[in-house]
Amino acid sequence: MQRLIALAVTLGLLFAGCQALSSNRGRLQLLSGLGVEVPGIDTPLSDLPHQYTADGRHQVVVYGPPNCSPTARTVQTLAQHNIPYIYKNTDIVSQEELGSIILSIPENASGGSPLVLVNEKVLLRPSIHDILAEFTQRQPRT
């Protein structure tokens, strides 16, 4: 009986703590602190791979599922504008990497695929204008 009461108190505190935190990231940090595995919570975007080409130029990272029309259009448009990019299939990317990307989506964002990483900023189903505006702000790595 004491274990049941302790569990109820813990769940109540957890629920109250989650309600008190305004962001999803805050809620997930609370869960992580309680021992729940949250892939990507401690991975900053700057640590994610493939943000630079082999010769040190910045590139766009496009995350999306295979056979996704918006993702395919984004990749095609980037190629047409000669913007260096890499496509990452969300079905096979690591949970830690995808978790870091998802946790970095702005709170008020809505939409679907693709998720686009540009200059350590996640854009959700962006237009080419959004990508270009962000991409041109970064100078090549020296």
What are its keywords?
142 residues; 2 domains; Glutaredoxin; 5 helices; 4 strands; 41% helix; alpha+beta; four-stranded mixed beta sheet
**How many structurally independent domains?**
2
Question: Strand share of the residues?
Answer: 5-15%
For the record, give the distance between the C-alpha atoms at the N and C termini, rounded to a whole number. Answer: 64 Å
Please give the largest β-sheet: 4 strands, mixed
Helix/strand-derived category reads alpha+beta
- Specify the overall morphology: globular
Task: Write down the Rg.
Answer: 19 Å
Give the helix tally.
5
Query: What average pLDDT do the residues reach?
Result: 78
Order of helices and strands: HHEHEHEEH
- Give the strand order of the largest sheet, numbering strands 1, 2, ... along the chain: 2-1-3-4
CATH architecture of the largest domain: 3-Layer(aba) Sandwich
Q: Please bin the fraction of helical residues.
A: 40-55%
Strand tally is 4
If you consult CATH, what is the topology of the largest domain? Glutaredoxin
CATH superfamily (homologous) name of the largest domain:
Glutaredoxin
CATH class of the largest domain: Alpha Beta
